[in-house]
Structures are given as structure tokens and as C-alpha cells.
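So, could you explain this one?
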Amino acid sequence: MSAEAASPGVPVRKRSRPRIDLRRLGRVALLGPVSRGRLPDAIGHVAEAHRAHHPDADLSVLSRAYALAESSHRGQMRKSGEPYITHPLAVTLILAELGAETTTLTASLLHDTVEDTEVTLDQVREEFGEEVSYLVDGVTKLEKVDYGDAAEPETFRKMLVATGDDVRVMSIKLADRLHNMRTLGVMRPEKQARIAKVTRDVLIPLAERLGVQALKTELEDLVFAILHPEEHAHTQTLIAESESGENPLATIAQNVRNTLREAGIAAEVLIRPRHFVSVHRVRTKRGELRGTDFGRLLVLVGEDADCYAVLGELHTCFTPVISEFKDFVAAPKFNLYQSLHTAVVGPGGAVAEVLIRTHRMHKVAEAGVVALGNPYAPDAPALAGEEPADGERADPTRPGWLSRLLDWQESAPDPDTFWSTLRADLAEDREITVFRTDGRTLVLPAGASCVDAAYAQYGEGAHRCIGARVNGRLATLATALGDGDTVQLLLARDTASGPSREWLDHARTPAARIAIAGWFDAHPEDAASQDAEDARYAPYTDGAHAEGPSTGGPRTGGPRTGGPAGAEQGGGDTGGLDWPPAHPPEAPAAQGAGDGAPACLVTLVAESFGRPRLLADLTEAIATADAAIVSATVEPPSEQRVRHTYTLQLTDADGLPALVRAMRDVAGVYDVSRA
């Protein structure tokens, strides 16, 4: 497939900087005659793009890397009929135009040598150093003859682990996939579709998370053309028709320029065309496209403060669409993206979306982590808000999503599990930050529950979690967390506790799901016992005796061996939280007062998390405290909490405190009070 199959909006830069245009690359010339002291002609355009971002770069290492790559790949041809050396050159040019530093470009030129030629990793290390060798090894595929069907998922696992130590590995892989997608048209349709689906499910989400929008948008369009050719053709027609008519954005752009000029704000105002997939999404959302839907206005300024000055002028001189305003300058996205988003109403009621950012923000928005240069250099500039911890350099390229991915992949040895879980994890395109009670934070995917927070904070120690407080209020483990919530997790003291199967229904993170499934695999007898218990107490889930679904109170690995166990959490004690007994007794019938003893009636309300066997344990506790049940009601569960109301007869009013303590000691009960 040619580069013309997609038409992402061409990013803009100051005139002194090269334009990031990823579609102009054609066939690259082979190694030609070179005069002494000059770079080979075939790599000259790479050197030009590199020097535009790094004027003082040492180009001699690129010359040596190209010479080794060309001689190693000589005689090899691509399926398109081009000499193979055109591929590493094209990949390197993509990265050079994004602003990658010299080490990344060197590794990019050599990225296929170890995989496809006689060059060894030791040779690369000896001639170009450890960093280049690590990057080349990180993108080298595993042999299918050694791994069979697991070769592809295990290659991605290896690549992701390498990315955890050096994010430049994934930068090279993304550029490699982009050039392969550009030239995919020479392959069979079924192979095109298979590669496009992997690109859609894995590579595009990774490009989004690393903030490399210039690569992501073109990959999206290329995948769109292969997997949805009819929709792509229709979108292409709509874009062509819009370009043939008058562009309403041009009028609004000129009005914005005039407004900012009168306000004394130096700014570039440009029209940024939407790429194919973006236009398709807008059409799907709105049904009918407006003339201003084919692009957005981009306002580039010098300083952060200028962004807000522009915003103020626009909202003063134009009618703003307040619902469209987003501030990603004060609160950057997890992929480093910063920009102000708004929309204003122009002449005739035309609505134009506007992006406001500095030139540096624009560079980062296009190139993401590639724009950081070498983030591992001692003098690498730190991002705003990144402070070194414990004397160590803060690593802006190791965001929360990557750390979580690297953690859970260690617990997924099976390639199929890893592959399916990776795709599911990358499908989550938004993150939230929740606060622990010690002031530290947990970064989780949107929609994550307290179950996910527990495993993110405690790992396998979360097996004994029995509840949580969210923003100071008791909550079940099924509770979905929101951005900015404070979560305090409650743990049972009994280390033999295990999770509930229902936790799998509430877990969104792979780490939590893999840990829970792993516990059941390691405890088959407990798992079978739990299934039997759930079936035995199923009648308690209906009508007046409803106990509510299990909220994630942990299951113990064995019978109760004494009094109720305590619980531990971030600050405080929740009482007895060890459950269930190995052989729960049947609920006792109502009893009368002891012979000759003065009777005392009291009504108590027990608030609890719902779980199987809760009613049996409560009635056992009441009987143990020498109280008789006169009447009892159990309200239907609400948000997995259950409210029990008991009218009880005691032989002596002095026994009330002991009765309340006994009921509070029942696992899952968090409050008992007089009605």
C-alpha cells in the first residue's frame, strides 16, 4: 500500500525547523560513489533531517552504521522488489524527522542486521557500543523455528521488557511497522489483514501511550484502508469534495489572527486537516459533517502563559462552546500530551475546534517520547512535575501503564494468556489517579475497582483484602474508582485468606485478574469448596433473606481455629474479619428467655458487606451471646451492602454490650447499632 492511501494532517513547525512529513519518502538510492569525507549519498537526506533537530550531532557513526547495514543486506530484496537496504533507511528517516537522537538512528539502520544477516550482536556491540546493541537486540524477532506459534507474542513480550529499560526500543519498532504498513500492498489480502489487526490492537495503542501521534495517525489510516476499505473510500471522497469547495475554517482562522494581532499576542494560526480516521469518527458521531469538521485550528505560541492569553482572547471575542473546553496544559495526559482544547463559533454559526499549545508542546504532541532525545543521558531535561525520588533520576519514559504491564506479564507465562491480556490491557485508553492514605498515588485504567487498587498496592497480599474506604466512606471491593479518589484498603489479619471468584467480575487490570486466577489454580480444593458454599447458600440471595452478592470478603484457607481474627488497614481496626467457619451451623430457631430470668427486648441493626453464609454466622453469634431472635428482616442488597434488623430477647440488659461486640466480630459486619 502506498503512502498516498492515507492522508494524516501535516504537522506544522516554525520555518527554521523541518516539517514532519511521513508520506514523502519514496525509493531510496543505493550506495553510490562517495568522495572522501562525505556521507554516502543514500543517507544524505537522513543526515539533513537529523541535523535540523541536532545541529551538533556526530554524523560519522551514522556513516559507519549505514556502511555495515548496506554491505550486510546487499543482494537481499523486499517483496516489493526494492533492495532491502531501502527499509532500514526509510525507518531511520522517519525517526530522524521526528527528532530522534543519534544512538536511536544508528540502531535503526542496523535493526534488521542481526535478524536477517550474518552480523552478530557481539559485532554490533564491539563497533557501536552497549546502547546500540541493546536497542538492536530489543527489536530482533524470536525465531519461529524455536518458538512456533508463540514466536509473535513472545517477541512482543521481549520487546516490551526491553522497552521498560529503554523506551527507544519501541520507537524503532513503531517506525519499522509504519514503513512495513506503507508497503503492505504487495502481500496477500489475508496477510495484510492479519498484520493490520495486530497493528490496530497492539502497535497503535502503544504509539498512543508513548505520545507519538505522527506515527499513530498514519498507522490508523493505513489500518483503516485495509480492514474497512469501503468506509475508507467513502471518507476519501468526502475529504476530496470538501477540498474542492470553500473552506469555512479559513475565514475563522483569519479572524483569529486579527484578534490576536490586535491583542499583541505573537502566534501562528494554522489549519490542521483531520486524518481519515478522525473524519470517519466525527461522521459516525454526528451523522452529517459540517464544513468545519474536516480540520481544526492550531494556534502556536512561545510560552505556557501565552496559551491562556490566547484562550482568554478567543473566549472574549468569540462565542465559546464551553462543553468543548479541556485543559491538558495544567493537567497533561499520561502520554506527555499538553494542549488547550476549545471551540468557538465563527461567522454564520460555524463551529471551529481550536488547539492552543507552545512550539515545544507541539513537538512533543507529534513525536512523544522521541522528542525527549536521549532521556537516559545525565543532562536530559526533566519534564514538568517529574522530581527524582530517593536521589535517583526520574524516568519520564516509564509511565504507570508501562510499569503495570511489565509487572503482570511476569505472572503470565503462557503465551496465549499474555497475548490476549496484552490486547485487552491496551484497549483501555484512559487512566485515573487515585490516592492512598499515605499520600502516594496509584495509576489505574479508567473503570478500575477497589479490587484493582488492592492488587496494585499489595500484590498477592491483596488476597486477604475484605473491603475499602473510598473518600472516607466504607465501600465494597466492587466499587469503581474515579479520578482523584482516596482509597484505603482493609486487610484481614489471617494470611491464609483467599479471594472470591466474584472478584474476577470487578477486576479490570491484568495484574489483578492473573493473581486471582493464579490463587485458584494453586488452591483447587479451596476453589471447589468455595463453589460448593456458593451453591449451598444460594437461597439466601432472594427475598427477605437476601444476603447480597459477595463483595470480596476473602475466603480463608481452612477452618476457624479460635476466636475471630482482627483486621489491619491503613489506620484503624475493623474488628473480626476471619471467615467462614469450615462447617457453618444451621440458623438457630428463636429461643425464649432463660427460666426465671427477667427478659429484655432490643432491636439492633447490623450493616454489612454481602457474602455467602453471613446470615448463618450472625445468628450463630447471637446465639453464642445468649440472645433469642424474636424477629428478623434482611433488606435486599444495595450496592452489595446488606442491612439486617433483629429484634432480640436477652436474659439480662447487662449482656447487650457483649452481644453488640459479638455481632460486630462477624466477618463482613462493619457496624451494629440500636434501632
